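Practice problem: Aminopeptidase
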Amino acid sequence: MTDYDAATGQEALQSLIETDEGSHYLGEIALVSNDSPLSQTDTLFYNTLFDENTACHIGIGNASPSNLQHGSDLSVKELMEAGLNTSLLLVNVTFGTEDMNVVGIKEGGTKVLLMENGEFLF
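Answer key — C-alpha cells:
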C-alpha cells in the first residue's frame, strides 16, 4: 500500500495516485542544480521538456525506457523484468530550495553528500 497525504489538494493527489497500479510508484527522480541554465531563467515555460529541467522533481507513475542503459532497445517484457515502472500517467512534482542538501545512502549505509545548498558536489 502506498501512503500519501497533502496539506492541500488531497483529492487531486489521490486522483493521480489511484489512476492505476503503476501510479502508486515513482517513475523518476531528477536532481537539478540551482545554477543550471534553465533554473536560472526563473521562468515557467508551459512545456514539459523545459519545465522538468528547471527544478528537481519526482515523477509519479510511468518511467521512460531511456532511464535504463539501452532501454529503448528492450522489449516491453524486458523492461518489466528490469523493473521499469509503467502507468497511464507521469506527473512531475517539483521541489527544492537554495539551501537544499541531498544525501545518498549506499548499500551498507554509507552516506554521500550529493548536493549542498542546491549545487552538485561533483
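Discussion: Residues 10-97 form one domain. Students who identified this feature from the C-alpha cells alone can consider the problem solved.
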